[in-house]
């Protein structure tokens, strides 16, 4: 199995894990502030990885070298989380889901400026097909819900957050190297994320309230820490270095479909025929983008 196939498998696994995190985060965010929860995820993930890095002198030296670059990568990474969580105070999940479909197109446009890549007319059509198909899933194939979409201040915040997410794989490709050890990159990114999240907590005066979490929440917390923080950081950063930013972000079109499937399997969510068509179209759009040179 060649490196590119491995990278596609990695990013597909990461997309599935992130889709599952919506359900886990929803259950925990009702207990403590979501930004506080995100900071806790980063800290616990860093603690898990610390023994592997701290007791290896070479890795420790590399982390110190990489941290300045990681501060930039982690800034756009954490800005997305902060923007998303603050936006949801003023907007709906449906609105944010619709706006999030713009991320692959944003990334493709950014690649024109950073890597001199081009967007063919055919490819542009596929991006719009991806946006339409994922909106079908997000709005549950209800045209009235889509037509009632109106933008508010929260939507503008989430639009900026989505732009940060579009920058995330671009900066990974720009600043990190295949020669860098992946563990070092993830560790340095987590350090940066903790610094930015801690500053946010202080500026917004958000209480930590970690004591509210008990043993009943440990499985959900472990899933967020190991599954959607440590593992997805590894998978995203490795896959981006191999595939590039545009192809990695194309998998976003599968995200609402995967969330719908996970909700169907674990929460009894019903998938209508219209949503099923949206899932097929979003899968088709993703495959087409991935097949582009």
From TrEMBL:
It is a multi-pass membrane protein. Its main location: membrane. Keywords: Membrane, Transmembrane, Transmembrane helix. Belongs to the EamA transporter family. It is found in: Membrane. This is EamA/RhaT family transporter. Residues 7-138, 154-290 form the EamA domain. The chain crosses the membrane at residues 7-25, 31-54, 66-85, 97-115, 124-141, 156-175, 182-204, 216-236, 248-266, 272-290. GO terms for cellular component: membrane.
